[in-house]
Amino acid sequence: MNDILPGDIAKWHFVENTARRIFHIYGFTELRTPVLERTELFFRGIGDDTDVVEKQMYTFTDKSGTAVALRPEATASVLRSVIEHGLLGTDPIQKLYSMGPMFRYERPQKGRYRQFHQINVERLGEDSPSSDAETLSMAYALALALGLKGLKMEVNSLGCDDCRQEFKRALIAFLKDKEKSLCSDCSRRMKTNPLRVLDCKVVSCRQAVEGAPAIEDFLCEGCRVHYNKVQDALRSFDVPFEKNPRLVRGLDYYTKTTFELTAEGLGSQNAVAGGGRYDNLVKTLGGPDVSGIGFAFGIERIIMLLDHHAPEKKGCFVVLQEDDAVQAWALEVLSMLRTAYIPAEAAFKKSFKAQMRKAGKSGYPLCIILGQAELEKSMVTIKDLRDSSQIQVSRTEALKKIRSMLDKQGEKK
Ligand code: AMP
Question: Which pTM was predicted?
Fold first, then answer.
């Protein structure tokens, strides 16, 4: 679990604001849920034979004896909220996003934390291939807007319950004589959740699944047509993608379209986003029989990739001489600047030299110097910290001049 320190916060704001901007363009609105939910929600939603639920949930019993869990992912919580508030009754198409911390008791490593943050999208009430492709294209648009490099979008279809049953049977038959080479998790999963064996990272498991049947060959007519149309629509949206028949995702609820987005520079944990369609989940959680699709970006992984410097702070540092009259005047100047929405700071009770040092480190382009000389002449000294040039202007002209110098700073960049 990490602290997010002031030195990094500009990156976080950039990521969050970019996501809001892109989602707004696609007509999505924000929904926020609590971080704590009844444990049962995740058992029903995610599936009790997934790593996330089986091993990684932070759960406890609260004072009333209710089993609660820190959310390990957002989809189940968002759907719980949509169902609880009858949002689909108000509008049968819900296009939602949310952001916030998720909790999984995983083995910590670079890019994998126990508290991490996701940007999450859920789209409910539409089942057309175009809505799949549009959702994937929104994920891609966000990755581009964030400036991520070496993007790779991999897609697959996991079919519906019918075609998946047949595929599972074929996969189990294939894995039967490979059981000895599977890790202990996979030899157990082979019976309960064989699809998960396909994306196990253990080398012997990877070798064992070479030549395994591909789900695409088992898709029923409806799922096959859907998958083909999603691919056509992705081409229309100009989203480059590759098919990956091995792509199964860690949570049980996915049906039909699934995808993962990877980026250059992350090492082995290179997925920045993943998601897919979940046509049975709303119903499973006690809602109406409507389909859905969604995805999640991991914010920490995006932050690791950002070559993004804090934007220039547009504002002034006010440096004042130690003197009661100057002090009173400085407070007026600070108020005047702030009333004009110009960021302004001062460091009271520090020597003049220390204040100048602080101004230099503040990141503001301008420094306003107020001393007895200025007070007597009714002038203000403005120092441009970029090139160390200095001018004096009358008090009445000061605000106008500061504004124009700040604008010029912006142009210079
Ligand atoms: P998932 O909810 O497992 O489909 O993950 C979606 C995205 O969340 C992944 O592509 C990662 O970017 C991110 N993510 C998942 N688990 C973690 C974690 N433990 N630490 C950091 N990021 C994570």
Answer: 0.89
